[in-house]
Amino acid sequence: MKDQILLVQNEALSAITATQDSRQLEEVRVAVLGKKGSLTALSSGMKDVPAAEKGAIGQALNAARQAITEALEAKQADLQEMADRAALVGIDPTLPARALAAGAIHPLTLLRERAVGILRRMGFALADGPEIEDEFHCFDALNTPADHPARNEKDTFYFDSGKLLRTHTSSVQVRSMERSTPPLRIIAPGTAYRRDEIDSTHLSAFHQLEGLYVDRDVSLPDLKGTLEAFLQELFGAGTAVRFRPHFFPFTEPSFEIDVKLEVKGQAPRWIEVAGCGMVDPAVFEAVCQSRGDRVFDPDVVTGFAFGMGLERLAMIQWGIRDIRLLIENDVRFLRQFA
To answer: Residue 325 carries which DSSP code?
Structure first.
Protein backbone atom coordinates (compact mmCIF):
# COMPACT_ATOMS: atom_id res chain seq x y z
CA MET A 1 0.00 0.00 0.00
CA LYS A 2 2.96 2.28 0.59
CA ASP A 3 3.84 1.94 -3.10
CA GLN A 4 0.30 2.96 -4.06
CA ILE A 5 0.47 6.01 -1.76
CA LEU A 6 3.80 7.07 -3.25
CA LEU A 7 2.45 6.59 -6.78
CA VAL A 8 -0.63 8.78 -6.06
CA GLN A 9 1.61 11.41 -4.47
CA ASN A 10 4.02 11.57 -7.41
CA GLU A 11 1.21 11.69 -9.98
CA ALA A 12 -0.50 14.47 -8.01
CA LEU A 13 2.68 16.55 -7.74
CA SER A 14 3.33 16.15 -11.47
CA ALA A 15 -0.26 17.20 -12.28
CA ILE A 16 0.04 20.23 -10.00
CA THR A 17 3.26 21.32 -11.71
CA ALA A 18 1.60 21.05 -15.13
CA THR A 19 -1.49 23.17 -14.30
CA GLN A 20 -1.83 26.50 -16.10
CA ASP A 21 -4.64 28.17 -14.19
CA SER A 22 -6.70 28.04 -10.98
CA ARG A 23 -9.48 26.02 -12.61
CA GLN A 24 -7.11 23.19 -13.54
CA LEU A 25 -5.51 23.33 -10.10
CA GLU A 26 -8.91 22.91 -8.45
CA GLU A 27 -9.64 19.91 -10.67
CA VAL A 28 -6.40 18.26 -9.50
CA ARG A 29 -7.24 18.94 -5.87
CA VAL A 30 -10.69 17.38 -6.18
CA ALA A 31 -9.29 14.36 -8.09
CA VAL A 32 -6.79 13.64 -5.33
CA LEU A 33 -8.15 15.05 -2.06
CA GLY A 34 -11.87 15.27 -2.77
CA LYS A 35 -14.51 12.89 -1.36
CA LYS A 36 -13.93 10.51 -4.27
CA GLY A 37 -10.26 11.40 -4.74
CA SER A 38 -7.49 8.86 -5.19
CA LEU A 39 -5.76 9.60 -1.88
CA THR A 40 -9.10 9.67 -0.07
CA ALA A 41 -9.87 6.21 -1.46
CA LEU A 42 -6.58 4.90 -0.10
CA SER A 43 -7.35 6.41 3.29
CA SER A 44 -10.71 4.61 3.40
CA GLY A 45 -8.81 1.35 2.91
CA MET A 46 -7.08 1.72 6.28
CA LYS A 47 -9.70 -0.56 7.82
CA ASP A 48 -8.27 -3.48 5.83
CA VAL A 49 -4.63 -2.82 6.79
CA PRO A 50 -3.16 -5.26 9.37
CA ALA A 51 -2.86 -3.75 12.81
CA ALA A 52 0.94 -4.07 12.78
CA GLU A 53 1.15 -1.89 9.63
CA LYS A 54 -1.52 0.74 10.45
CA GLY A 55 0.99 3.10 12.06
CA ALA A 56 3.40 3.12 9.15
CA ILE A 57 0.63 3.34 6.53
CA GLY A 58 -1.07 6.16 8.45
CA GLN A 59 2.18 8.14 8.57
CA ALA A 60 2.66 7.63 4.83
CA LEU A 61 -0.87 8.86 4.11
CA ASN A 62 -0.42 11.96 6.28
CA ALA A 63 2.95 12.72 4.67
CA ALA A 64 1.47 12.40 1.19
CA ARG A 65 -1.54 14.60 2.06
CA GLN A 66 0.75 17.27 3.54
CA ALA A 67 3.08 17.25 0.53
CA ILE A 68 0.18 17.54 -1.91
CA THR A 69 -1.50 20.32 0.11
CA GLU A 70 1.74 22.33 0.30
CA ALA A 71 2.26 21.89 -3.44
CA LEU A 72 -1.30 23.09 -4.12
CA GLU A 73 -0.82 26.21 -1.99
CA ALA A 74 2.55 27.01 -3.55
CA LYS A 75 1.13 26.60 -7.07
CA GLN A 76 -1.88 28.79 -6.23
CA ALA A 77 0.49 31.51 -5.00
CA ASP A 78 2.50 31.26 -8.23
CA LEU A 79 -0.65 31.47 -10.36
CA GLN A 80 -1.86 34.50 -8.42
CA GLU A 81 1.48 36.24 -8.85
CA MET A 82 1.36 35.56 -12.60
CA ALA A 83 -2.19 36.98 -12.76
CA ASP A 84 -1.11 40.09 -10.86
CA ARG A 85 1.79 40.68 -13.23
CA ALA A 86 -0.49 40.21 -16.23
CA ALA A 87 -2.92 42.76 -14.82
CA LEU A 88 -0.13 45.34 -14.66
CA VAL A 89 0.88 44.94 -18.31
CA GLY A 90 0.65 48.35 -19.95
CA ILE A 91 0.40 50.17 -16.61
CA ASP A 92 3.18 52.44 -15.38
CA PRO A 93 3.36 51.87 -11.60
CA THR A 94 5.64 54.89 -11.23
CA LEU A 95 2.83 57.32 -12.14
CA PRO A 96 1.65 59.41 -9.16
CA ALA A 97 -1.70 58.47 -7.66
CA ARG A 98 -4.78 60.55 -8.36
CA ALA A 99 -5.46 63.10 -5.68
CA LEU A 100 -8.53 62.36 -3.54
CA ALA A 101 -11.02 65.19 -3.19
CA ALA A 102 -11.26 66.55 0.34
CA GLY A 103 -14.57 66.06 2.09
CA ALA A 104 -16.48 68.80 3.86
CA ILE A 105 -19.10 69.31 6.54
CA HIS A 106 -22.65 69.61 5.21
CA PRO A 107 -23.93 73.21 5.16
CA LEU A 108 -26.76 72.35 7.57
CA THR A 109 -24.25 70.99 10.06
CA LEU A 110 -22.11 74.09 9.67
CA LEU A 111 -25.14 76.32 10.28
CA ARG A 112 -26.34 74.29 13.28
CA GLU A 113 -22.93 74.34 14.95
CA ARG A 114 -22.64 78.09 14.48
CA ALA A 115 -26.18 78.80 15.72
CA VAL A 116 -25.76 76.53 18.75
CA GLY A 117 -22.42 78.17 19.52
CA ILE A 118 -23.98 81.64 19.56
CA LEU A 119 -26.85 80.60 21.83
CA ARG A 120 -24.52 78.68 24.15
CA ARG A 121 -22.51 81.88 24.61
CA MET A 122 -25.78 83.59 25.49
CA GLY A 123 -26.28 81.13 28.35
CA PHE A 124 -28.50 78.44 26.78
CA ALA A 125 -27.83 74.76 27.55
CA LEU A 126 -28.40 71.91 25.07
CA ALA A 127 -31.40 69.63 25.55
CA ASP A 128 -32.67 66.61 23.63
CA GLY A 129 -35.80 64.45 23.37
CA PRO A 130 -37.33 61.59 21.34
CA GLU A 131 -38.36 62.02 17.71
CA ILE A 132 -41.24 59.54 18.20
CA GLU A 133 -43.53 61.39 20.59
CA ASP A 134 -46.92 61.08 22.28
CA GLU A 135 -49.76 63.53 21.85
CA PHE A 136 -49.39 64.93 25.36
CA HIS A 137 -45.85 66.24 24.88
CA CYS A 138 -46.36 67.25 21.24
CA PHE A 139 -49.83 68.82 21.50
CA ASP A 140 -51.78 68.62 24.79
CA ALA A 141 -49.09 70.10 27.04
CA LEU A 142 -48.58 72.84 24.46
CA ASN A 143 -52.20 73.99 24.70
CA THR A 144 -53.09 72.62 21.26
CA PRO A 145 -56.81 71.72 21.15
CA ALA A 146 -58.03 68.40 19.80
CA ASP A 147 -59.54 70.01 16.69
CA HIS A 148 -56.39 71.95 15.77
CA PRO A 149 -55.37 71.35 12.10
CA ALA A 150 -51.85 70.31 13.15
CA ARG A 151 -53.32 67.23 14.86
CA ASN A 152 -54.99 66.05 11.68
CA GLU A 153 -53.54 63.02 9.88
CA LYS A 154 -53.17 65.21 6.81
CA ASP A 155 -50.59 67.30 8.66
CA THR A 156 -48.91 64.85 11.06
CA PHE A 157 -47.33 61.41 10.67
CA TYR A 158 -49.12 59.03 13.08
CA PHE A 159 -48.26 55.43 13.97
CA ASP A 160 -50.86 52.71 14.53
CA SER A 161 -49.92 52.84 18.23
CA GLY A 162 -51.20 56.42 18.45
CA LYS A 163 -47.72 57.87 18.74
CA LEU A 164 -46.41 60.26 16.11
CA LEU A 165 -43.31 61.79 14.56
CA ARG A 166 -42.86 65.07 16.38
CA THR A 167 -44.00 68.07 14.37
CA HIS A 168 -41.66 70.40 16.26
CA THR A 169 -38.95 70.18 18.88
CA SER A 170 -41.18 72.15 21.26
CA SER A 171 -41.88 68.77 22.87
CA VAL A 172 -38.31 68.92 24.23
CA GLN A 173 -39.26 72.12 26.05
CA VAL A 174 -42.07 70.30 27.87
CA ARG A 175 -39.83 67.38 28.78
CA SER A 176 -37.13 69.76 30.01
CA MET A 177 -39.62 71.51 32.32
CA GLU A 178 -40.82 68.12 33.62
CA ARG A 179 -37.34 67.18 34.80
CA SER A 180 -35.85 70.59 35.74
CA THR A 181 -36.73 73.62 37.83
CA PRO A 182 -36.48 77.36 37.09
CA PRO A 183 -34.40 79.18 36.10
CA LEU A 184 -34.35 77.18 32.89
CA ARG A 185 -32.62 78.26 29.70
CA ILE A 186 -32.35 75.54 27.01
CA ILE A 187 -32.08 75.07 23.26
CA ALA A 188 -33.18 71.91 21.44
CA PRO A 189 -31.83 71.35 17.91
CA GLY A 190 -33.31 68.35 16.12
CA THR A 191 -35.40 66.90 13.32
CA ALA A 192 -39.13 67.52 12.93
CA TYR A 193 -41.66 65.96 10.54
CA ARG A 194 -44.77 67.31 8.84
CA ARG A 195 -46.90 66.26 5.90
CA ASP A 196 -45.92 69.38 3.97
CA GLU A 197 -45.81 69.34 0.19
CA ILE A 198 -42.15 69.65 -0.79
CA ASP A 199 -41.37 72.83 -2.69
CA SER A 200 -38.67 75.50 -2.83
CA THR A 201 -39.25 76.52 0.82
CA HIS A 202 -40.81 73.42 2.47
CA LEU A 203 -39.68 69.88 3.31
CA SER A 204 -41.52 67.04 5.03
CA ALA A 205 -38.49 66.30 7.24
CA PHE A 206 -36.54 69.32 8.37
CA HIS A 207 -34.38 70.63 11.19
CA GLN A 208 -35.46 72.98 13.95
CA LEU A 209 -33.73 74.84 16.71
CA GLU A 210 -36.08 75.50 19.64
CA GLY A 211 -35.34 77.64 22.66
CA LEU A 212 -36.94 78.21 26.06
CA TYR A 213 -36.17 80.62 28.90
CA VAL A 214 -38.18 80.46 32.14
CA ASP A 215 -37.52 82.51 35.27
CA ARG A 216 -39.10 85.23 37.36
CA ASP A 217 -39.87 88.44 35.47
CA VAL A 218 -38.92 87.26 31.98
CA SER A 219 -40.44 89.82 29.62
CA LEU A 220 -41.21 90.43 25.95
CA PRO A 221 -38.23 92.83 25.59
CA ASP A 222 -36.01 89.95 26.76
CA LEU A 223 -37.39 87.82 23.93
CA LYS A 224 -37.00 90.48 21.27
CA GLY A 225 -33.52 91.48 22.37
CA THR A 226 -32.31 87.86 22.53
CA LEU A 227 -33.52 86.92 19.05
CA GLU A 228 -32.40 90.14 17.39
CA ALA A 229 -28.94 89.72 18.92
CA PHE A 230 -28.83 86.09 17.79
CA LEU A 231 -29.87 86.76 14.18
CA GLN A 232 -27.55 89.74 13.79
CA GLU A 233 -24.66 87.74 15.23
CA LEU A 234 -25.48 84.92 12.81
CA PHE A 235 -25.98 86.98 9.65
CA GLY A 236 -24.20 90.24 10.38
CA ALA A 237 -24.87 93.48 12.22
CA GLY A 238 -26.83 94.97 9.31
CA THR A 239 -29.32 92.11 9.09
CA ALA A 240 -32.91 93.30 8.66
CA VAL A 241 -35.23 91.55 11.13
CA ARG A 242 -38.95 92.07 11.62
CA PHE A 243 -41.50 90.69 14.11
CA ARG A 244 -45.07 90.13 12.91
CA PRO A 245 -47.96 89.42 15.32
CA HIS A 246 -49.14 85.84 14.93
CA PHE A 247 -50.99 83.11 16.81
CA PHE A 248 -49.53 79.97 18.38
CA PRO A 249 -51.49 77.89 20.92
CA PHE A 250 -48.49 77.68 23.28
CA THR A 251 -47.43 81.34 23.38
CA GLU A 252 -49.26 84.61 24.05
CA PRO A 253 -48.46 87.11 22.66
CA SER A 254 -46.92 85.38 19.64
CA PHE A 255 -44.84 86.55 16.70
CA GLU A 256 -43.33 85.29 13.49
CA ILE A 257 -39.85 86.51 12.65
CA ASP A 258 -38.77 87.36 9.12
CA VAL A 259 -35.30 88.04 7.77
CA LYS A 260 -34.72 89.63 4.40
CA LEU A 261 -33.33 87.14 1.89
CA GLU A 262 -31.07 88.59 -0.77
CA VAL A 263 -30.13 86.26 -3.63
CA LYS A 264 -28.04 87.42 -6.55
CA GLY A 265 -30.25 88.02 -9.58
CA GLN A 266 -33.46 88.19 -7.51
CA ALA A 267 -35.30 90.99 -5.77
CA PRO A 268 -34.82 91.00 -1.97
CA ARG A 269 -37.72 89.32 -0.16
CA TRP A 270 -38.74 88.59 3.41
CA ILE A 271 -38.58 84.96 4.44
CA GLU A 272 -40.02 83.53 7.65
CA VAL A 273 -37.34 81.91 9.82
CA ALA A 274 -38.85 81.57 13.28
CA GLY A 275 -41.89 81.68 15.51
CA CYS A 276 -41.75 82.95 19.06
CA GLY A 277 -43.71 84.37 21.97
CA MET A 278 -44.24 84.45 25.70
CA VAL A 279 -45.08 81.03 27.12
CA ASP A 280 -48.85 80.68 27.56
CA PRO A 281 -49.86 80.15 31.23
CA ALA A 282 -51.82 77.07 30.09
CA VAL A 283 -48.51 75.40 29.17
CA PHE A 284 -47.15 76.03 32.67
CA GLU A 285 -50.33 74.63 34.18
CA ALA A 286 -50.03 71.45 32.06
CA VAL A 287 -46.41 71.02 33.20
CA CYS A 288 -47.41 71.53 36.85
CA GLN A 289 -50.10 68.89 36.50
CA SER A 290 -47.63 66.47 34.90
CA ARG A 291 -45.01 67.11 37.60
CA GLY A 292 -47.48 67.06 40.48
CA ASP A 293 -46.16 70.30 41.99
CA ARG A 294 -46.32 74.08 41.44
CA VAL A 295 -42.70 74.74 40.50
CA PHE A 296 -43.82 76.30 37.21
CA ASP A 297 -46.73 78.25 38.70
CA PRO A 298 -47.67 80.85 36.02
CA ASP A 299 -48.36 83.35 38.81
CA VAL A 300 -44.71 83.09 39.84
CA VAL A 301 -42.67 82.46 36.68
CA THR A 302 -42.80 83.69 33.10
CA GLY A 303 -40.87 82.69 30.04
CA PHE A 304 -40.38 82.96 26.33
CA ALA A 305 -39.99 80.30 23.63
CA PHE A 306 -38.87 80.32 20.04
CA GLY A 307 -38.38 77.87 17.19
CA MET A 308 -36.60 78.32 13.88
CA GLY A 309 -35.93 76.24 10.79
CA LEU A 310 -32.25 75.58 10.20
CA GLU A 311 -32.78 75.02 6.47
CA ARG A 312 -34.23 78.51 6.10
CA LEU A 313 -31.39 80.00 8.12
CA ALA A 314 -28.97 78.25 5.74
CA MET A 315 -30.83 79.71 2.74
CA ILE A 316 -30.28 83.20 4.11
CA GLN A 317 -26.71 82.54 5.21
CA TRP A 318 -25.56 81.47 1.73
CA GLY A 319 -28.25 82.87 -0.55
CA ILE A 320 -29.63 79.44 -1.47
CA ARG A 321 -32.62 79.82 -3.76
CA ASP A 322 -34.22 76.37 -3.23
CA ILE A 323 -34.42 74.42 0.05
CA ARG A 324 -34.40 71.13 -1.87
CA LEU A 325 -30.75 71.64 -2.76
CA LEU A 326 -29.92 70.84 0.87
CA ILE A 327 -31.24 67.26 0.60
CA GLU A 328 -30.47 66.28 -3.00
CA ASN A 329 -26.80 65.38 -2.30
CA ASP A 330 -25.66 67.05 -5.52
CA VAL A 331 -21.86 67.14 -5.22
CA ARG A 332 -21.71 70.17 -7.50
CA PHE A 333 -23.75 72.11 -4.93
CA LEU A 334 -22.09 70.70 -1.80
CA ARG A 335 -18.57 71.27 -3.18
CA GLN A 336 -19.11 75.00 -2.69
CA PHE A 337 -18.89 74.47 1.08
CA ALA A 338 -15.67 72.40 1.03
So the answer is: G
